[in-house]
Amino acid sequence: MPEIKVSCHLITWRDEFKLGLKEASSLGYRACETFTHIALGYENEVARFQQLLNEHSFVLSALYGGGRFTDERQRQEIIDYNEKVARFLTLNGSDIIVFGAKGPRSKDGTTLDELKTAAKTINEAAKRCADLGVRACVHPHLGTEIQDENELDAIMELTDPDYVFLCPDTAHLTKAGMDPVQIIERYRDRVKYVHLKDVTPEEVDIEKFPILSGNEALPIFCELGLGNVDMKPVIACLKNIGYDGWVTVEIDKSTSTPQNSLAVCRDYVQEVLSLSIRQANHY
Fold first, then answer.
1. For FRET with 143, which of 105, 175, 268, 280 sits at 20 to 30 Å CA-CA?
2. Per-domain residue ranges for the chain?
3. Mind listing the UniProt keywords for this protein, alphabetically (predicted)?
4. Coil, strand or helix: which one is 3?
5. Distance CA 157, CA 252 (A)
6. What is the mean pLDDT of each run of 10 residues along the chain (283 residues)?
7. CATH code of the region 5-271
8. How distant is the alpha carbon of residue 206 from its chain centre?
């Protein structure tokens, strides 16, 4: 029976990478994704980066690459950048790079010609990563050139399935009007990495966010289990397709503290989704 592996994103700590490692590790997490600019800050100190991970019993699940794929003028720069990220990943035992699209997004969406341009860049960059043993996973993202279902479908159709894979993000898919379960099922052979993320409901039960003082605006994304994304069918679908890769818990902004938010997510993952955040053998 394939075992889904759990990672956490240190985005909640912003640029406080070392603090994020320390606090996430204290919660029991044993794998992480972090900002790429932080990781590449150790490009010439790979041993030091590995030491920091090892000190907290962590492995690196992935890094977030990508670019403005629809801009043909940036093609070579995007390819070179993602190849650099992929090289860093291989030095740190990871084989996943997330290809995040960039904004701003046109009010009319992305045209087919633009998507064809994007697909060409994605194909070439993904092939370069594959040559290094790293799988490139496209991440549809709100406010970018790859947001809506028709754009995702076009990119998946126009790219090479041998090199280009998918990173479904439960929150971004949901906010864009998609059903994460349907998307995972549709691209079951290409799903190689997953972001587990919840969406803050429009009608908020303020008692679930006790740290708020006053009328601060809630972030669009929230801790797992407090939002309106039903994660249980997502995990059931992943198990059904035999997925044995990473699911990465992600919350962009905490309404309390990063450690508290990741504790809420940990409890939800373990108690509701019945997934262990401690895997003895990651790779």
1. 268
2. 5-271
3. Isomerase
4. coil
5. 30
6. 90 95 98 95 97 97 96 98 98 97 91 98 99 98 96 99 98 97 99 97 67 58 94 98 97 90 96 86 46
7. 3.20.20.150
8. 27
